[in-house]
Specification:
mainly alpha, about 230 residues, 2 strands, two-stranded antiparallel ribbon
Length: about 230
Amino acid sequence: MRRLVPTGLVRSTVAMAVICLLIAVTMGLLLGGQRVGTAFDQTVYWAVYKQFVGEDELLRAMLVPTEPVLLVVVIGLIVMVAVARRRPRLAILAVVGPLATVTLTSGVLKPLFDRTINNGSLAFPSGHTSGLVAVLTVLVIAVVSTVGPPWRKSLATLVIVSATVMTVVGATALIGMKYHYVTDTVGGACTAAGTVLLVALAIDWAASRRTRMTAERERTATSGVAL
């Protein structure tokens, strides 16, 4: 079975995942318990507000990529394509990666850090941002693990740039609608990327271990028959 993370990218992927999660946790520790945004949050909010004042409909349209229903549909499509192409690891990642991200974000980190916005709504890390970035990270992994050289690097770069633009658009809408501070969206993006990358590595490890164990059992059975 094809790996989710090419062998040559394992170390860099581990480093990237750890760095992303460390950034999210560090930000959470620094921002935990806050009831108002930082000076940086306020500066970014007013900059977005001035650009989109009176453009509520546009901001709502920009929020569409972060909607859970749409993300579930995209996940379903990824799973169907992965199954059709006989990529069970990718199908598992498409489900487990975003699910683990949402669980970690909403079930663990938000209550743990207890940062709020709008009179008590838990804000850090942003669940909308983490959900979007989790799905986009799965798409990036799908491209990197499917396309071979010499097109892998250029196509992966294109997908990463597109995913970044989509994330910025969604985050801008969340900030403009005052659903989140900008630091919440950064924390959400880091949480999602780190979590999905670790899940991908875990799936590869588990699948490889199972393959080795199966091969060992087959060799043992063959040796027994030979005797």
